[in-house]
UniProtKB/TrEMBL annotation:
Residues 6-330 form the Amidohydrolase-related domain. It comes from the Bacteria. Keywords: Lyase. It holds the Pfam family Amidohydro_2. This is Amidohydrolase family protein. InterPro entries: ACMSD, Amidohydro-rel, Metal_Hydrolase. SUPFAM superfamilies: Metallo-dependent hydrolases (SSF51556). PANTHER family: 2-AMINO-3-CARBOXYLMUCONATE-6-SEMIALDEHYDE DECARBOXYLASE, ISO-OROTATE DECARBOXYLASE (EUROFUNG).
Length: 332
């Protein structure tokens, strides 16, 4: 039997989560911050774009038809990052992750042979993170989706050690997908909030995992960085130089930063075949997974075609197309 084609970067919209948080203290401020970061021109485009895609984001039948058209056999479905709600207090955060995990699992149960899911953990409340991860796994989800940081906390924060330990112990997947960039209004025109902001946040978050020694302490962690890991994999030489040349840069991790790329996973969504080839070279063909950002406009409608354009050797092409993800997800 041939290897299935597996898309690890696909989203589900959960209206019930938004209904839960609507009107709560802090929600309005969070929406205002998001609006400020994106700017009015981006918001004017985002609304109609999302509305047009609601059926693909919510209806499993429509999703499966779109997957068939793309030649995708299996999707790893994660909640839209707009559902993180890291502003929420503990009680609300618990309700959000319970509902998000259960709703995503229900969506995937419509086609369990073709849809696998990821839940959410409230990074703003590290004490809840392990409980949220366990709950996601109890729902039959493969792991959880996390952002690049929470307010006042980077992924290198010692408060997350229990989460990394539990994820390593259980084999859970951690899908690192930013939402919002702290460069704020500097990126509020021309959709720089996404085109520059997302790769910056990916690079910062992965650098925190590397330089703080998280990947030394938990070598079995299964982290998938969205958007090809952002700017980091193609600019990792600068990190290696700093690690070698400066005592402060080299103090937290045991090995050259570039070596940790081979301990992480990256999706293929870089929108440039030359960058994708470099990502495969830097991380290894066994560490890159097909990703489309289904069904948003910053994704690709033809993830297999985008992969084919990189002109990888056949064995590497098949590994990225689905072999690596099939092994991660223990697909038959």
């Amino acid at each position: 039997m041939s290897t299935p084609t597996v898309d690890v970067h696909a989203h589900v919209l959960l209206p019930e989560v938004e209904a839960l948080v609507a009107g709560l203290p802090g929600h309005g401020e969070a929406k205002a911050l998001d609006a400020r970061r994106n700017g009015p021109a981006a918001l004017a485009v985002n609304g109609p774009m999302v509305r047009e895609r609601v059926p693909r984001l919510t209806d499993p039948t429509v999703r499966l038809a779109a997957m068939d058209a793309q030649g995708v056999d299996v999707q790893l479905v994660s909640p839209s990052p707009s559902h993180y709600h890291y502003w929420a207090d503990e009680e609300t955060a618990r309700k959000v992750y319970l509902l998000a995990n259960e709703s995503t699992a229900a969506h995937c149960r419509a086609a369990p042979d073709r849809l696998r899911g990821l839940g959410l953990v409230p990074l703003q409340h590290p004490d809840l993170a392990v409980h949220a991860l366990d709950h996601a796994l109890e729902q039959g989800l493969a792991g959880v989706e996390i952002s690049s940081h929470a307010p006042g906390r980077e992924l290198s924060d010692p408060a997350y050690e229990d989460l990394w330990a539990r994820a390593e112990e259980t084999g859970a997947l951690l899908f690192l997908h930013p939402f919002g960039c702290t460069l704020d209004e500097r990126l509020d025109r021309w959709y720089l909030s996404n085109t520059v902001g997302q790769p910056v946040e990916n690079a910062v978050a992965v650098s925190h995992l590397i330089f703080s020694g998280v990947l030394d302490r938990y070598p079995g962690l299964k982290v998938i960085a969205a958007h090809g890991g952002g700017y980091l994999p193609t600019h990792i030489g600068r990190s290696d130089h700093a690690w070698s040349a400066r005592s402060d840069a080299g103090a937290g991790c045991a090995h050259l930063p570039s070596s940790y790329l081979k301990r992480l996973y990256f999706d293929s969504l870089v929108h440039d075949p030359h960058v994708l080839r470099e990502l495969v070279r830097a991380a290894g063909a066994d560490r890159v997974l097909l990703g489309s950002d289904f069904p948003f406009d910053m994704g690709t409608e033809d993830p297999v075609g985008a992969l084919r354009a990189a002109r990888l050797p056949r064995t590497d092409f098949d590994a990225v197309r689905g072999g690596n993800a099939a092994a991660l997800l223990s697909l038959e």
